[in-house]
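User: Hi! I'm working on a homework problem where we have to compare a predicted structure to a textbook description. Could you give me the structure for the chain below?
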Amino acid sequence: MNLNKPTSYIDRVVAILFGVIVSLMLIAIVFRYVLNSSLYWSDEIVRYLFVWLTFLGAAIAIRDKAHIRVDFFANKLPFRFRKIVKRLDDVLLLSFLLFITIGGFIWVFQLSGSYSPALSLPLNWLFYAALPTTSLIAFIYAIKQFQSDIRNTQNERRL
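Assistant: Happy to help. Predicted structure tokens:
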């Protein structure tokens, strides 16, 4: 993790979501155990925010190339084949993210009409939209990395 790199909007959103989750949990604890009055909606909001936080964190991990990767066998290959495996890996990741994004938005539109139990908020946008939205963000990050890798390969060939 590079601490000198500037933070993006997504990093700020994740930090804000984390702060809101912690605050809501503390407020709910105070209400429940100190004031003997439970907040019926706090668990529901925390659950939905945590889902968004998790999926945004996954997109950030794609941006920072921090996802788990088993490259033992790829590192055993000759350099040329290693590059081919890397490109194949990138294409498979982009295809998967595109599939999840398109399929996810179709799923979100099909699930209109479902509402959260405590607050009666639309679940398709509050909860289910986290998957395709963050997949789209991850797809954009992966495209940028793919383009950067291609530029770097072209620059290596020129040298």
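For your comparison, note the following. The mean pLDDT is 88. The helical segments are 9-34, 42-63, 72-76, 79-110, 123-128, 130-158. Good luck with the assignment!
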